[in-house]
Design a protein that fits this description.
Layout (H helix, E strand, L loop, with lengths): L9 E4 L9 H16 L3 E4 L13 H12 L23 H13 L2 E4 L3 H10 L21 H9 L5 E4 L6 E6 L3 E6 L7 E3 L7 H11 L4 E5 L6 H11 L7 E5 L2 E2 L9 H7 L8 E2 L6 E2 L2 H4 L3 H9 L14 H7 L10 E2 L2 H14 L2 H14 L7 H11 L9 H5 L20 H15 L7 H14 L4 H13 L7 H8 L1 H16 L2
Parallel strand pairs: 1-2, 8-9, 10-13
Antiparallel strand pairs: 3-4, 4-7, 5-6, 11-12
C-alpha cells in the first residue's frame, strides 16, 4: 500500500548545495510533492551539507528559488522552520556521533584508522580495491588491532572514521513501491564510511538518522541510489528497527535523447538545451549554465513535462496542471524503465501552455525580454493585445520578440529575395494604391474592413488577392511569419503600414 491511513505522510527532498538543480532532481521534488499533497501530507526540504568541501555559496538559495518558481513550497525547510529542525545537516552534527557509537557498541560498525596515503597504497596494490570483509583484517581498524591499541589510538585522538561492519552473505530484502521486491547479498557490499574523521556523517548515516528523527514515511530517490540500499537497510535495522523504515521508491533515470545513459549537463551543452531548472552561476568558476526558466519555459509547462518523464495517468492525456497532477498521481503509474528526454517535446509542452495562458500573465513574463531587446513598450495594454495575437506561434517566451517586435517598430531587415521572383509593375501600382489609401486614411483600422478594401482593390486592378498576401506580409513584418496581415495593420495603424510599404517599394525599386 502507498499510504497508511493512521499515519500522516511525510516526504522529503534532501539535496546537497553543490550546484544547479538538474531536472532529474526537480522531478524527484515533484513526485515527493504530488504524493504528499495527494494524501494531505507534508513535504520537507532538508539540506544535506555534510560534505563541506563540496559546498557552493548560493546553492541553497538557488534550490529554494527553484522550488518557489515551480510552485512547490515546502511545508518545512531551513527557511520555513518546523517541529523537526534543524533542516541543515551541518547544524545537526552533534546528534550523529551518538548513533555511530551505538553501532560500534553493538558490533555493527568499527573504527578505522587507515590514512589516506595507506588507502592509496592498497588501491595501487589491489585492482578495484574495496574495504570489505575480505580486506578489513589486513587494514588498521578496531577489528584487526588489539583492544589496547585501539584504546590508545582513540585516547591520543588519532584521526579515524567509523565504517559499517557488513555481515557475510546475508540476504537483505525490501519492497520498493515502484520495483516490487528487491534483494541484496551483503557479501557484495563494502564497508562504507558512516562517520568521517571530522565527525560529520556521510550520507549513509545521516539519511537514516534524519529520516527517523523527522518521521519520514516515504522516501523517493533516483535508482542510482539502489546500490546503497543494503547499507541503509542495515543501519535502519540496527539503530531503529525495520518497522520504522520509510517505504522506498526508486525513480527511473532521465536518459539522454538516444537512451544511452543518464542525461547530464554535458549532454545539454553538447546538444544545445538546458538541463538545470534555472540559470546557475557558479560562484567559484563564474560560469553560468542556462536553465529552463531563462530559456523561456513557463513553470507550469516545466512541471508538466517533468511529470510525463516516467509517469502517465493511463490515458493519452498529456497536459496537466499541478492541481490535476496531485489528483491523478499514483506510484503504480510510475515506470520502472528510464525516460528519454526529448527537447522538442519539452518545447511542445511549453507551447501548449502558452496557448492557454492568460495574456496579461504572459505580458508580465515577456516584458523583460522586450527590455533586453531594447524595444520600448509605451502602453502595457497594447502588449497584452499583441500577446493574444501571436502566442500560438511561440514555443518559448523568447519567441515573442521575433514574433511580435514588428508591432512596436518597423522592421529594418526585409526579405526582398522572397518577393522579387514574382514582382512586376502591376504589383507596384497595386501597393502604391494601398499605400496612398492608408496615408489618406480612406479605410479605418478595423481588420475586417481592411481585408475587404484590400481584396476589392486587387479585384479592381485585375489581380488575385492570394498573389499579393506574401509580399504584403513581408512589407509589414520583414519576413514570412506573423499573425493575420490585417490584424497587424489594424494594430500598427494604417499610417505606419503606409510607411512600411513605401520603405519596401524603395528597396525593390533598386533591384
Amino acid at each position: 500500500m502507498e499510504n497508511s491511513a493512521d499515519q500522516m505522510v511525510r516526504v522529503r527532498f534532501a539535496p546537497s548545495p553543490t550546484g544547479g538543480l538538474h531536472l532529474g532532481g526537480v522531478r524527484t521534488v515533484l513526485f515527493n510533492y504530488l504524493f504528499a499533497k495527494k494524501y494531505k501530507g507534508q513535504f520537507i526540504l532538508r539540506i544535506e551539507d555534510t560534505d563541506q568541501s563540496r559546498f557552493v555559496p548560493g546553492a541553497e538559495q538557488y534550490i529554494l528559488d527553484t522550488l518557489a518558481w515551480c510552485g512547490m513550497t515546502p511545508d518545512e525547510s531551513p527557511i520555513h522552520g518546523g517541529a523537526y529542525g534543524p533542516y541543515r545537516q551541518n547544524e545537526r552534527k552533534p546528534m550523529y556521533k551518538q548513533y555511530a557509537n551505538q553501532l560500534i557498541e553493538q558490533g555493527n560498525a568499527y573504527y578505522a584508522f587507515d590514512t589516506a596515503e595507506e588507502l592509496d597504497v592498497k588501491r595501487k596494490e589491489i585492482p578495484n580495491f574495496q574495504y570489505n570483509r575480505a580486506t578489513r583484517m589486513g587494514m588498521k581498524n578496531s577489528l584487526s588491532l588489539p583492544a589496547a591499541e585501539v584504546t590508545r589510538l582513540l585516547n591520543e585522538n588519532i584521526p579515524h572514521v567509523v565504517r559499517i561492519n557488513m555481515p557475510d552473505s546475508e540476504e537483505l530484502v525490501f519492497e520498493d513501491l515502484i520495483r516490487g521486491e528487491v534483494k541484496f547479498d551483503t557479501s557484495m557490499v563494502d564497508d562504507k564510511v558512516l562517520l568521517k574523521a571530522d565527525e560529520m556523517p556521510t550520507y549513509h548515516l545521516a539519511v537514516v538518522v534524519d529520516d527517523f528523527l523527522m518521521k519520514i514515511t516515504h522516501a523517493f530517490r533516483g535508482e542510482e541510489w539502489l546500490p546503497s540500499a543494503p547499507v541503509h537497510i542495515l543501519v535502519w535495522k540496527n539503530l531503529f528497527g525495520l518497522d520504522k523504515m520509510p517505504q522506498w521508491a526508486h525513480l527511473p533515470l532521465i536518459l539522454k535523447p538516444d537512451g544511452n545513459g543518464k542525461l547530464s549537463k554535458r549532454d545539454g551543452d553538447r546538444l544545445g538545451f538546458p538541463v538545470f531548472a534555472m540559470d546557475w552561476k557558479d560562484s567559484n568558476t563564474k560560469e553560468t549554465t542556462i536553465g529552463f526558466k531563462e530559456r523561456g519555459f513557463l513553470p507550469a509547462a516545466f512541471v508538466n513535462l517533468l511529470a510525463m518523464l516516467g509517469w502517465n495517468d493511463g490515458t493519452d492525456h498529456e497536459l496537466f496542471s499541478l492541481d490535476s497532477l496531485i489528483e491523478k498521481f499514483s506510484l503504480d503509474r510510475v515506470h520502472k524503465g528510464g525516460a528519454k528526454f526529448d527537447y522538442e517535446k519539452a518545447k511542445w509542452f511549453n507551447q501548449e501552455w502558452l496557448k492557454q495562458s492568460d495574456n496579461a500573465y504572459l505580458a508580465n513574463l515577456v516584458a523583460p525580454y522586450f527590455e533586453a531587446a531594447k524595444i520600448e513598450i509605451h502602453e502595457p495594454s497594447y502588449l497584452v493585445k499583441v500577446i493574444g495575437l501571436v502566442k500560438e506561434r511561440c514555443q518559448l517566451l523568447s519567441d515573442f520578440i521575433p514574433q511580435s517586435s514588428f508591432f512596436f517598430a518597423a522592421p529594418t531587415e526585409i526579405d526582398t529575395a522572397s518577393i522579387l521572383p514574382k514582382w512586376d509593375p502591376a504589383k507596384v501600382i497595386f501597393f502604391t494604391s494601398v499605400m496612398d489609401a492608408y496615408r489618406n486614411q480612406v479605410v479605418t483600422n478595423d481588420a475586417t474592413l481592411l481585408e475587404t478594401h484590400f481584396k476589392t482593390l486587387a479585384t479592381e486592378q485585375g489581380l488575385k488577392p492570394g498573389d499579393l498576401m506574401l509580399p504584403f506580409r513581408i512589407m509589414l513584418v520583414g519576413g514570412k511569419f506573423g499573425p493575420g496581415v490585417f490584424d497587424i495593420v489594424a494594430n500598427i495603424e494604417t499610417q505606419d503600414a503606409a510607411k512600411r510599404i513605401q520603405y519596401c517599394l524603395d528597396l525593390l525599386s533598386k533591384n
